[in-house]
Each structure stands twice: as structure tokens, then as C-alpha cells.
Design goal:
single chain; Arc Repressor Mutant, subunit A; 5 helices; 72% helix
Length: 113
């Protein structure tokens, strides 16, 4: 497997969609780039890059710098991976907590059925 394919797989396992992974990977390689440059490097349509950026910003993986044209700067890869891991841990913890609550409710209703 090529390194870029393995890296994309790791990003997918970290909770990103395919296009989000491609866009982040391209942005990380470029470090500071315009949406047009990211689109070309990631092979993701420019419109889709614009749609993906707010999610990557919300996760803390990229930062939009104001100017003409707007430039996108990535969070260092090591920090970004830590952010993704933390996000997955939080999501998993919330899901387990919900499942425990639902299990108690189910058992209560089952006992009275």
C-alpha cells in the first residue's frame, strides 16, 4: 500500500470522510494554500473544498486566514492527529454513556412487561 493511501486510511479511521481526509492531507502537504491550490492538490472540486473547510475548522485542523485570496493554514499534523483522537474518544465515551442509560431503561421496561 502506498504511503498516501495508508495516511488517508488513518485519517478515515480517525473520523474524517473521504473528501475531508483528501482535503486535510493536501492542505497539510501545502501548509499554507488557497482553496484553488488545495482543490488541485486533493483532486476535490473547489465547491466541495469550500463546503468541507468549516468542518475542518471546527475540528481545529485548519485555520482560515483572511485576505485575497483567502489562505488556509493547517494545524501541525501531530497536533491534528491528537485532536482527532480526542474527538473520537469523546464521541465514543458519549455513545457508551447513552447506551448504558438506554440499557437501564430497557431492562426496567422489560421487567414490567
Amino acid at each position: 500500500m502506498l504511503h498516501s493511501e495508508k495516511n488517508a486510511e488513518i485519517l478515515l479511521d480517525s473520523g474524517l470522510t473521504g473528501n475531508q481526509a483528501k482535503v486535510y492531507f493536501a492542505t497539510a502537504r501545502l501548509r499554507l494554500a488557497s482553496v484553488a491550490q488545495i482543490s488541485k492538490a486533493s483532486k476535490v472540486r473547489r465547491e466541495d473544498v469550500y463546503r468541507i473547510m468549516p468542518k475542518l475548522e471546527k475540528l481545529g485542523l485548519v485555520e482560515k486566514l483572511l485576505g485575497t485570496p483567502t489562505k488556509i493554514r493547517t494545524t501541525p499534523v501531530e497536533e491534528a492527529l491528537s485532536i482527532l483522537i480526542k474527538h473520537e474518544e469523546d464521541t465514543s465515551s458519549e455513545r457508551v454513556s447513552t447506551l448504558k442509560t438506554e440499557t437501564k431503561t430497557f431492562l426496567k421496561h422489560f421487567a414490567h412487561a
